[in-house]
Protein backbone atom coordinates (compact mmCIF):
# COMPACT_ATOMS: atom_id res chain seq x y z
CA UNK A 1 0.00 0.00 0.00
CA UNK A 2 1.47 3.36 -0.99
CA UNK A 3 1.62 6.35 1.33
CA UNK A 4 -0.87 8.26 -0.79
CA UNK A 5 -3.27 5.32 -0.52
CA UNK A 6 -2.86 5.33 3.26
CA UNK A 7 -3.69 9.03 3.38
CA UNK A 8 -6.74 8.46 1.19
CA UNK A 9 -7.89 5.67 3.50
CA UNK A 10 -7.40 7.95 6.50
CA UNK A 11 -9.43 10.71 4.82
CA UNK A 12 -12.26 8.28 4.12
CA UNK A 13 -12.18 7.04 7.70
CA UNK A 14 -12.30 10.56 9.13
CA UNK A 15 -15.16 11.57 6.84
CA UNK A 16 -17.48 8.82 8.04
CA UNK A 17 -16.30 7.99 11.56
CA UNK A 18 -17.95 9.55 14.58
CA UNK A 19 -14.92 10.98 16.34
CA UNK A 20 -14.98 13.33 19.31
CA UNK A 21 -12.84 16.30 18.32
CA UNK A 22 -12.97 18.09 21.65
CA UNK A 23 -9.94 18.12 23.90
CA UNK A 24 -10.19 16.03 27.07
CA UNK A 25 -8.98 18.99 29.11
CA UNK A 26 -11.77 20.67 31.06
CA UNK A 27 -12.16 24.42 30.63
CA UNK A 28 -14.81 27.13 30.73
CA UNK A 29 -12.96 30.00 29.05
CA UNK A 30 -10.15 30.56 26.55
CA UNK A 31 -7.87 31.54 29.43
CA UNK A 32 -8.60 28.30 31.27
CA UNK A 33 -7.83 26.23 28.19
CA UNK A 34 -4.53 28.02 27.67
CA UNK A 35 -3.51 27.43 31.28
CA UNK A 36 -4.63 23.79 31.13
CA UNK A 37 -2.60 23.12 28.00
CA UNK A 38 0.49 24.74 29.54
CA UNK A 39 0.04 22.53 32.61
CA UNK A 40 -0.46 19.41 30.48
CA UNK A 41 3.08 19.45 29.08
CA UNK A 42 4.56 16.03 29.99
CA UNK A 43 1.58 15.47 32.27
CA UNK A 44 -1.71 13.63 31.76
CA UNK A 45 -4.92 15.49 30.99
CA UNK A 46 -6.53 13.53 33.81
CA UNK A 47 -4.11 14.92 36.36
CA UNK A 48 -4.51 18.47 35.05
CA UNK A 49 -8.30 18.15 35.28
CA UNK A 50 -7.93 17.07 38.90
CA UNK A 51 -5.92 20.08 40.04
CA UNK A 52 -7.24 22.80 37.70
CA UNK A 53 -10.58 23.56 39.42
CA UNK A 54 -8.87 24.78 42.60
CA UNK A 55 -6.34 26.77 40.56
CA UNK A 56 -9.13 28.48 38.59
CA UNK A 57 -11.07 29.13 41.77
CA UNK A 58 -8.15 31.16 43.10
CA UNK A 59 -7.03 32.56 39.73
CA UNK A 60 -10.12 32.77 37.47
CA UNK A 61 -8.47 35.08 34.95
CA UNK A 62 -5.10 36.43 33.78
CA UNK A 63 -5.54 39.60 35.83
CA UNK A 64 -5.33 37.49 39.00
CA UNK A 65 -2.26 35.55 37.88
CA UNK A 66 -0.60 38.79 36.85
CA UNK A 67 -0.46 39.85 40.51
CA UNK A 68 0.30 36.41 41.95
CA UNK A 69 3.51 35.32 43.58
CA UNK A 70 5.23 31.96 43.25
CA UNK A 71 4.29 30.87 46.78
CA UNK A 72 0.60 31.27 45.91
CA UNK A 73 0.66 29.33 42.65
CA UNK A 74 3.09 26.51 43.39
CA UNK A 75 1.07 24.74 46.11
CA UNK A 76 -1.91 24.49 43.76
CA UNK A 77 0.04 22.70 41.02
CA UNK A 78 2.82 20.95 42.95
CA UNK A 79 1.47 17.46 42.14
CA UNK A 80 1.98 17.83 38.38
CA UNK A 81 5.23 17.57 36.42
CA UNK A 82 7.73 20.45 36.62
CA UNK A 83 5.64 22.56 39.03
CA UNK A 84 8.44 25.07 39.70
CA UNK A 85 8.80 26.10 36.07
CA UNK A 86 5.08 25.96 35.38
CA UNK A 87 4.25 28.18 38.35
CA UNK A 88 6.68 30.80 37.03
CA UNK A 89 5.29 30.39 33.51
CA UNK A 90 1.71 30.94 34.65
CA UNK A 91 2.58 34.12 36.51
CA UNK A 92 4.52 35.43 33.51
CA UNK A 93 1.72 34.37 31.19
CA UNK A 94 -0.84 36.31 33.22
CA UNK A 95 1.32 39.43 33.25
CA UNK A 96 2.02 39.34 29.53
CA UNK A 97 -1.61 38.68 28.63
CA UNK A 98 -2.63 41.78 30.58
CA UNK A 99 0.21 44.01 29.39
CA UNK A 100 0.26 43.06 25.70
CA UNK A 101 -3.05 41.42 24.81
CA UNK A 102 -5.65 43.14 26.95
CA UNK A 103 -6.25 39.99 28.94
CA UNK A 104 -7.31 38.06 25.84
CA UNK A 105 -5.84 34.85 24.41
CA UNK A 106 -4.06 35.78 21.14
CA UNK A 107 -5.31 34.20 17.92
CA UNK A 108 -2.01 33.83 16.09
CA UNK A 109 0.94 31.49 16.60
CA UNK A 110 3.66 34.14 16.91
CA UNK A 111 1.84 35.97 19.69
CA UNK A 112 0.94 32.75 21.48
CA UNK A 113 4.51 31.48 21.38
CA UNK A 114 5.73 34.72 22.92
CA UNK A 115 3.90 33.75 26.12
CA UNK A 116 5.86 31.93 28.86
CA UNK A 117 5.40 28.17 28.73
CA UNK A 118 3.79 28.21 25.28
CA UNK A 119 5.61 26.30 22.55
CA UNK A 120 4.50 25.42 19.05
CA UNK A 121 2.46 22.39 20.13
CA UNK A 122 0.58 24.37 22.77
CA UNK A 123 -0.04 27.20 20.31
CA UNK A 124 -1.39 24.74 17.74
CA UNK A 125 -3.84 23.30 20.27
CA UNK A 126 -5.15 26.76 21.09
CA UNK A 127 -5.43 27.80 17.44
CA UNK A 128 -7.29 24.63 16.57
CA UNK A 129 -9.65 24.36 19.54
CA UNK A 130 -10.43 28.03 20.14
CA UNK A 131 -10.04 29.57 16.70
CA UNK A 132 -10.85 26.66 14.38
CA UNK A 133 -7.58 27.00 12.49
CA UNK A 134 -6.17 23.96 10.60
CA UNK A 135 -3.18 23.37 12.88
CA UNK A 136 -1.69 20.04 13.90
CA UNK A 137 -0.47 19.63 17.49
CA UNK A 138 2.07 16.81 17.32
CA UNK A 139 2.39 15.23 20.75
CA UNK A 140 3.94 11.83 21.48
CA UNK A 141 0.74 10.07 20.40
CA UNK A 142 0.45 11.83 17.04
CA UNK A 143 4.17 11.30 16.46
CA UNK A 144 3.87 7.55 17.13
CA UNK A 145 0.57 6.93 15.33
CA UNK A 146 1.56 8.81 12.19
CA UNK A 147 4.71 6.68 11.92
CA UNK A 148 2.96 3.40 12.61
CA UNK A 149 0.25 4.12 10.07
CA UNK A 150 2.94 4.89 7.50
CA UNK A 151 1.94 8.51 6.99
CA UNK A 152 5.51 9.74 7.54
CA UNK A 153 8.96 8.20 7.21
CA UNK A 154 10.16 6.08 10.09
CA UNK A 155 13.42 8.03 10.33
CA UNK A 156 11.73 11.39 10.92
CA UNK A 157 12.99 12.75 14.24
CA UNK A 158 11.29 16.12 14.54
CA UNK A 159 7.65 16.72 15.58
CA UNK A 160 7.79 19.81 13.37
CA UNK A 161 8.61 17.68 10.30
CA UNK A 162 5.72 15.34 11.14
CA UNK A 163 3.40 18.33 11.52
CA UNK A 164 4.35 19.76 8.13
CA UNK A 165 3.96 16.39 6.38
CA UNK A 166 0.52 15.80 7.89
CA UNK A 167 -0.67 19.33 7.11
CA UNK A 168 0.46 18.93 3.50
CA UNK A 169 -1.49 15.71 3.03
CA UNK A 170 -4.68 16.12 5.06
CA UNK A 171 -7.50 18.36 3.77
CA UNK A 172 -7.93 21.52 5.83
CA UNK A 173 -11.44 20.63 6.93
CA UNK A 174 -10.15 17.35 8.40
CA UNK A 175 -6.98 18.56 10.12
CA UNK A 176 -8.51 19.22 13.54
CA UNK A 177 -10.43 15.96 13.45
CA UNK A 178 -7.32 14.04 12.35
CA UNK A 179 -5.24 15.59 15.12
CA UNK A 180 -7.68 14.76 17.89
CA UNK A 181 -8.32 11.30 16.46
CA UNK A 182 -4.59 10.46 16.46
CA UNK A 183 -4.20 11.78 20.01
CA UNK A 184 -7.05 9.62 21.31
CA UNK A 185 -6.09 6.65 19.13
CA UNK A 186 -2.56 6.74 20.51
CA UNK A 187 -3.77 7.24 24.05
CA UNK A 188 -6.26 4.38 24.16
CA UNK A 189 -5.65 1.97 21.25
CA UNK A 190 -2.28 2.39 19.54
CA UNK A 191 -0.42 2.58 22.84
CA UNK A 192 3.36 2.61 22.90
CA UNK A 193 4.31 -0.76 24.35
CA UNK A 194 1.51 -3.07 23.26
CA UNK A 195 -0.91 -1.60 20.73
CA UNK A 196 -4.38 -3.14 20.68
CA UNK A 197 -4.30 -4.05 16.99
CA UNK A 198 -7.22 -6.47 17.43
CA UNK A 199 -9.39 -3.53 18.50
CA UNK A 200 -8.18 -1.10 15.86
CA UNK A 201 -10.59 0.15 13.20
CA UNK A 202 -7.83 1.37 10.88
CA UNK A 203 -5.65 -1.75 10.83
CA UNK A 204 -6.57 -2.29 7.17
CA UNK A 205 -4.32 0.61 6.13
CA UNK A 206 -1.77 0.52 8.96
CA UNK A 207 1.84 -0.10 7.96
CA UNK A 208 2.72 -1.41 11.44
CA UNK A 209 -0.12 -3.96 11.34
CA UNK A 210 0.79 -4.92 7.78
CA UNK A 211 4.35 -5.71 8.87
CA UNK A 212 3.12 -7.76 11.82
CA UNK A 213 1.03 -9.85 9.44
CA UNK A 214 3.98 -10.34 7.11
CA UNK A 215 6.23 -11.45 9.97
CA UNK A 216 3.54 -13.64 11.49
CA UNK A 217 3.90 -11.87 14.84
CA UNK A 218 0.26 -10.92 15.24
CA UNK A 219 -1.03 -12.27 18.53
What does the model show?
With 219 residues, the protein is mostly helical. 60% of the residues lie in helices and 0% in strands. Helix 2 (30-39) packs antiparallel against helix 8 and helix 9 (140-149) crosses helix 11. The longest helix is centred in the middle third of the chain and has 18 residues, at 83-100. It is elongated and about 60 Å long.
Helix content: 55-70%
Oligomer: single chain
What ranges have pLDDT less than 50 throughout 5 or more consecutive residues?
none
Terminal CA distance: 22 Å
Largest sheet: none
Discrete helix count: 12
Order of helices and strands: HHHHHHHHHHHH
Total strand count, please?
Answer: 0
Strand content: under 5%
Class by SSE composition: mainly alpha
Question: Features of this protein?
Answer:
single chain; mainly alpha; 0% strand; 219 residues
How are the SSEs ordered, and which strands pair?
Layout: H1 3-16, H2 30-39, H3 45-58, H4 62-65, H5 70-77, H6 83-100, H7 109-113, H8 120-131, H9 140-149, H10 159-169, H11 172-188, H12 207-215
Helix pairs in contact: 1-11, 2-8, 5-6, 9-11
What is the structure about, briefly put?
The protein is mainly α. The chain has 12 helices and no strands.
